[in-house]
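Collaborator request, handled under Task 6.
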Amino acid sequence: MENLTDTIVAISTGSTSGAISIVRMSGKDAINIANKMFRSLKNKIPKEFNARYLELGNLKTSGFTEQALCVVFKAPYSYTGEDIVEFQCHGGLKIAEGVVTECIKNGARLATNGEFTKRAFINGKLSLSSAEGVMDMINAETDAEVRAGYELLNGGLSKIATDSQNELTDILSEIEVSFDYPEEQIEYITKAKVKQRLNSIAGLLDDVLESSKTGNLIKNGISILIVGKPNVGKSSLLNRLINRDRAIVTDIPGTTRDSIEDSFTIGGIKAKIIDTAGIHDTDDLVEKLGVDKAKQLIDFADIIIYVTDSSNPLVKEDNDIFELVKNKQHIKVANKCDIAKTRQDKTSIYISSATGEGIENLKQEIYNRFKSPKLVEGGVIITNARHKQALAVALEHVNMALDDIDNQTLDLISIDLKLAYSALGEITGNTTGEDIIDSIFSKFCLGK
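Structure tokens returned to the collaborator:
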């Protein structure tokens, strides 16, 4: 395990070239080390700077001198809760690496992955779930992931867990008092009151757990499968949805022989879309393999786009394919509406992959199938499997206590309440084992 009394340093802007590079140093010697390296244009050293004010000056290393900015954050009013110094240098790895080397030469050591955020957790600046929110925001690929990560970082889940723990503590305390002083003949808490309070906790935990369905959607995206017979415009539709030419498009039926996968964003959610080989009877071995794969994928998709050619009448192949998808979550799409003579099918969305007509309507329909109040209104959304498991265990023990309360004494009920408290502590971090904490922070990037 890391020595948490060391002063640590790392590049916080990643290992790529850019306009600026930021080197961050945290620990009891951070300011003293910076004093040896930096002097402002006003001839001041970092210990003389006003906290949280950028100072322009010269940053000296054994290899070069760089004109840079320096800012000091004094404990406990910093990200880590320790003294922090940040150097903002010109972009380029060579400069940033030289600054890190000089910091190490003067007494710092290279930080491990996520060590800055780990220190923030240990020093009480962040709960464990809030720290995981930091990581979720860094790794976010969609707006919805950013929003969910921010709610986690902002302490939404941590507050729910802490409030529930506090309520459980109060109930347990009242139970303990009633059993410690039986001679007083005072009923400190009744089973009816315990039931009422536990039902309130169970309802809250159940509501939060319900959000994991939306969380799974945000984390993993929507899996969309395009199916239809050959030459109805499935590949053209894929290209339209992702807004680039990903799939080869020709007038020759059966051009797509294997599935093609790509993604786009809709309503802030990632949509993974798969174009499949046209489903039909064929003697071509390669084409048949593609058709078989398309049929297999039907069972795994979140939603299926069933495509027909609106410029021609439906045939047996169309109907056979619909039989495969009718009991699945699906959207009927009538393509080539720009050359169709009529639009009689009221159950289909009419589109033209050639002109783009109806594409936005299709995207909106996909989004409508999956949007939830949580997704639209925001709030705490469970996207982390560890959090979901901890909440589920806590809820299970609260429900077990409720199931047994009429047949057991309150001191026996308290066993489940203590287990529920411990499970919730896996979220806040106050009952989490050191190995789990280490594992979580090891997944962070260097410098965070």
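The cover message to the collaborator said: "The first strand starts at residue 8 and ends at 11. Residues 4 and 119 are 8 Å apart (CA to CA). Please let us know whether this matches your experimental observations."
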